[in-house]
Amino acid sequence: MAATRILERARELEQETAEFLCEMIRIPSYSGQERGVIERIAARMRDAGLDEVRIDGLGNVIGRLGSGPRMVAFDAHIDTVETGDLSAWKTPPFDARIEGGQVIGRGSVDQEGGMASMVTAARLIREMDLNRDFTILFTGTVMEEDCDGLCWDYLIREEGIRPELVVITEPTNLNLYRGHRGRMEIKVRTRGLSCHGSAPERGINAIYRMARVALEIERLHGELRDDPFLGKGSVTISEFRSSSPSLCAVADGAEIHLDRRLTAGETRESAIGEVLEAARRAGVEVEVEVPVYRQASWTGRVHEMDKYFPTWVIPEDSPWVGDARTAFAAVFGRPPVVDKWTFSTNGVTIMGVHGIPCIGFGPGNEVMAHAPNEACPTEHLSAAAAFYAALVAHWNGRL
User: Fold this and answer.
1) Any catalytic annotation for residue 51?
2) CA 104/CA 368 separation, integer angstroms
3) Structural domain harbouring 274
4) Is position 110 within any domain?
5) Residue 371: which CATH number?
6) What is the pTM of this model?
7) H helices then E strands: how many in the chain?
8) How crowded is residue 170: how many other Cβ atoms within 10 Å of its Cβ?
9) Is 144 considered catalytic here?
10) Which of 14, 34, 75, 79 is catalytic?
11) Which of 107, 125, 154, 347 would be a feasible disulfide site paired with 80, CB 3.0-4.6 Å?
């Protein structure tokens, strides 16, 4: 049976897949600084026998297998967050190692593990002649940690790439995911009137004004809508800043930064309206803004995008979800657990903005994302590679 052989071969390549993941981890790849790891991935893609490997203007690496009339894509972002408190790590975060059946290091789960499994899957597809009808893209994308989906907005708008489906390889603990809440960033500003700190009654303290708004934002969190699948919307203040002529003066400006998670039915407009209503309840006039991301990629290219990342869900009865269920059951002999991510992925742009269907399946548990001592089981790497190859085989009638 093809599914059995696919899994057997993926397991034969498990050590090699884990070693490739270690190679990537040892090259720090913070957002905007991914050149080294992108070049390493490109070399590995060529070794795996992909038909074409190129790096686009933003710095994403794109591997192609096949040239059929239908196009699908597998995506892994390959930038990572920083390490945080080094004393919390048992081993140096970029000193990747394989111990106890796990690959340990920053990026092993979020989400270079998905990239390693994708390249192995490409090798399986080519070796076992599993593809006939599709152009299959394997994308290693940049800057996701700084601005979710920016990379795919570039691929769609500037490169003209528009697949029928994108498989997102973010960590799912080998479950099948079909959506997640959206998110947006919101800046809220208020102004005061400065005066000498020795007589604060002569001025208007912007910090006190914003403090009243902050308490209303805290109250707003408990009032946000819920969804039976995606869960509740949320809002929290992640930063508070103020300005004044000196430390001996009343603050004449204050600003808060909101992290807003959007459940089904919540939009940019509804979220801004709620913040304005919170300020009205506080009796404070505010300015509200959605920031624009304008940072240069490692190639020097700037691709601007508002920091609004819409909610997305693919229906459970979608044929794409059905295909994934079939491939999973063929490989693993049981039905998958179907769920959703807690965090955000490139799907916010791929499906949330551009309407291209997405499903998710990846190695590692998302609870390890951004955490010290991040580690991905090696058996997850081979299992994910087998699933990706089996999915392609199913689409081509070869499973």
Assistant:
1) no
2) 11
3) 183-293
4) yes
5) 3.40.630.10
6) 0.94
7) 10, 20
8) 28
9) yes
10) 79
11) 107
